[in-house]
Design brief:
The chain is of the alpha/beta class and about 325 residues long. The chain is about 55% helix and about 10% strand. Helix 2 links the parallel strand 2 and strand 3. The protein is globular and about 60 Å long. About 0% of the residues have low confidence.
Length: about 325
């Protein structure tokens, strides 16, 4: 099996530092690691301060991948990420390099490891079919799609609401790309545990899952400090420059924490920088809570507190066992 290290944790929990430390430890064990980002906001080249990306100095220490790989004017989704990440990880494995997956977008990494409903293995064919169906929708409306499902995937036809055009179209896409009903695919996925990375993965990977977290009171201090740092680095100016350079403020990536609140200040919805700071802190705490809830579902992970005194010793033991088995 090919080895993959996975680092998860809520926002502002120290994942970047841990990934760099692991890379150094791996080098001492005569193993080579490179970092693969799965934080969706860090993928956009226009977003820097609010994305809390690894610094240039940190990226020079260890090769980083899938950072600055997209534009906010052409947003990517989980399926795009899976296609890019799979290809990249395969290339790293061919070079005997262990990928370290690092990020805070749990849906993205679950889709990578456990798979998605919509086919991804033939992107060119899939794109052609999608374009053809888009034209069909514009000329014939949703009726064509509903009739198609009624004939080819009755279960999905009965399950989906007639006004849910998006999912009806996705179901037809899936059938035309794969030749099988999406309802069958859904049953197959649901029969597995979508959060158990020890088995039934889409890939032949042996995964070491490290999960970082800390008491909420300590975490709130980290969040507060990071917000202050972002504002001091010029988060407001970064968003102002984006608007000056063609962004409308409605781009999907700009709805992320930090950017959404800063846009509110620039629109006059917030009275001053202090209210902006408070809003970002609150939104970041809410994001961290949602991430914790999602990550709790993942099985077979090693829980780590970045402040635990024996952290380095434990990391060394875990990595040594993982690399040598």
């Amino acid at each position: 099996m090919n080895k993959v290290i996975l680092i998860t944790g809520p926002t502002a929990s120290g994942k970047t530092n841990l990934s760099l430390e692991l890379s150094k430890l791996a080098h001492k064990l005569e193993a080579t690691c490179e970092i693969v980002n799965f934080d969706s906001i860090a993928m956009y080249r226009e977003l820097n301060i609010g994305a809390a990306k690894p610094s240039r100095e940190e990226r020079q220490q260890v090769p980083h991948h899938l950072i600055d790989c997209a534009s906010i004017f052409d947003p990517i989704n989980a399926a795009d990420f899976v296609l890019n990440a799979k290809k990249l990880i395969q290339e790293l494995h061919k070079k005997n390099i262990i990928p370290i997956l690092v990020g805070g977008s749990p849906f993205y990494v679950r889709a990578l490891i456990k798979g998605m409903y919509l086919a991804k293995e033939a992107p060119e064919a899939a794109d052609a079919i999608k374009q053809e169906l888009k034209i069909k929708y514009e000329t014939s409306g949703i009726e064509y799609f509903s009739n198609f499902l009624q004939k080819n995937d009755l279960e999905s036809y009965q399950h989906l609401h007639p006004n849910d055009h998006y999912r009806i179209m996705r179901a037809v896409e899936h059938f035309q790309i794969t030749g099988t009903p999406i309802s069958l695919e859904r049953k197959r996925k649901e029969a597995q545990d979508p959060y158990d990375f020890r088995k039934n993965t889409e890939n032949d990977w042996h995964i070491l899952h490290l999960h970082l977290d800390m008491p909420k009171e300590d975490h709130f201090k980290y969040i507060t400090n990071r917000t202050k740092k972002m504002l001091a680095q010029g988060l407001v100016k970064e968003v102002e420059d984006l608007l000056k350079n063609g962004a409308a403020g409605t781009e999907r990536p700009l709805a992320s924490v930090g950017y959404k609140e800063t846009l509110g200040l620039l629109r006059g919805e917030l009275k001053d920088d202090q209210e902006l700071e408070n809003k970002i802190n609150i939104a970041t705490r809410q994001l961290a809570k949602a991430q914790r809830t999602y990550f709790k579902k993942f099985h077979d992970k090693h829980l780590l507190n970045p402040h635990q005194p024996d952290l380095f010793t434990r990391l060394t033991e875990l990595l040594k066992h993982f690399v040598q088995t």
